[in-house]
Predict the 3D structure of the following.
Amino acid sequence: MKDIFFEDTIAAISTAVSEAGIGIVRISGPDAVGIADRVLTLPGKKTLAEAPTHTIHYGFLHGSGDEEGEFDEVLATVMRGPKSYTAEDTVEINCHGGVYTVQKALEAVIGAGARLAEPGEFTKRAFLNGRIDLTRAEAVMEVIRAKSDLALKSSVKALRGSVWKSVSALRGEILHECAFIEAALDDPEHYSLDNYADSLGALCGDWKKRLSRLISTAKGGKLISEGINTVIIGRPNAGKSSLLNRFAGEERAIVTRVEGTTRDVIRHTVRVGGLTLNLADTAGIRDARDEVEQIGVELALDLAKEADLILYVVDSARELDENDRQIAGLIKDRKVIVLLNKSDLDTVTDEAAVRALGGNGRFVPLSALTGEGMEQLEKEILDMFHIGDLSFNEEAVITSMRHKDLLEKALGSLERVSQALEDGMPEDLVNIDLVEAASQLGQITGESIRDDLADEIFSKFCMGK
Ligand SMILES: Nc1nc2c(ncn2[C@@H]2O[C@H](COP(=O)(O)OP(=O)(O)OP(=O)(O)O)[C@@H](O)[C@H]2O)c(=O)[nH]1
Ligand SMILES: [Mg+2]
């Protein structure tokens, strides 16, 4: 445990503030038990102060100094530090879940001496009290904000420490070499740096590989946590808005037989399996005479350039035309699923015809009108983003941009180490970038470099003997 202690006691409503079966007010800090005792009456004049840790008590809630004014029947859980979420003394009061009651319970607790917690403050305390490292603290925030099942899974995995494990293992190895170099420079009689450059070069190559691998998961990690930006594109009347509505399960976009119905971008977020798709329905691509429609077409083309996934809707009941040729050319080499729409009608356009225009990607026959083919479309999307791999392997997935940034910086430092070794630079110079890399990785897990390097030197290399 780091010796940071907080003098004040904080409280907040820990459950969603809505009509629910129960609502929980959490109190954490040195006076948590005392404060709870001031607002609770337990049967037989018992108090929480004399209760053993990790026990639950039945009682009545009232304002501080207002024993007569009982307003709820509650269960209170006592968890004494360090065996609690924040590592501090914690009491959780389970009240009945009406918005009014829970608010009133919080007011009573504040009236008895607690301070209203800031957002995330319980987790911040858990971190500052040394109970969880920074990657886990961040993962807790991600669990709270997770938009999809898969995002939740990867945050929970980070919470169990998969990112922390990979990063701190790497950092430990780097620190070990930093310590060795410092020891050898200080005490050349006992530690020799002969041929050391070669072995450090080899280690450095391995570290760089591991870092690059971690960094490469960040793209998938971002898609998981923020959703896949998906653009529906196609010529007018192909059925783009019908597809959006089919995904949404409601009439989000106007559908008519008139070409050029959609002009603005219509957005809707949907879940597919464990994934989140941020869908954008766009204006049909054509050389529009109407100025407003033309702006919509430009917007569609711009969005398609940035998208993670393009759903290209083709009207398979009609021949392809110039607009299709333009679209097919534009989205070559991108992540594309071509939807041969209106499969419920007599079709004249097939996969081969689209390919002949240069269009490629995966092909799915679909009827946005009847819904036939939607299942296959969803399967293709899940398959395309390797959901099988991401959800089941135990590999760490980087979902935080802060982590990615620091990993890239650490990789840069290691590149400089490799370069310096190749140039035959002296070890003390090499060590500067090595320490830098360890420090950047330390910022991910929230460990400070100074103490750790000193520990490493003293514990492993018996300096000062
Ligand atoms: N038979 C059949 N008709 C469809 C299908 N999908 C869409 N339609 C019809 O095609 C017409 C155009 O559909 P929309 O969804 O508005 O097409 P859009 O691509 O959004 O058109 P714009 O917004 O004008 O670019 C409507 O009359 C739809 O009912 C389908 O799978 N089968
Ligand atoms: Mg439309």
In short: Residues 240-241, 253, 261-262, 281 surround magnesium ion (ligand 2) (CB under 6 Å). Residues 388-394 have pLDDT under 50 and may be disordered. The chain has three domains: 10-131, 149-221+398-461, 229-384. The two ends are 29 Å apart (CA to CA).
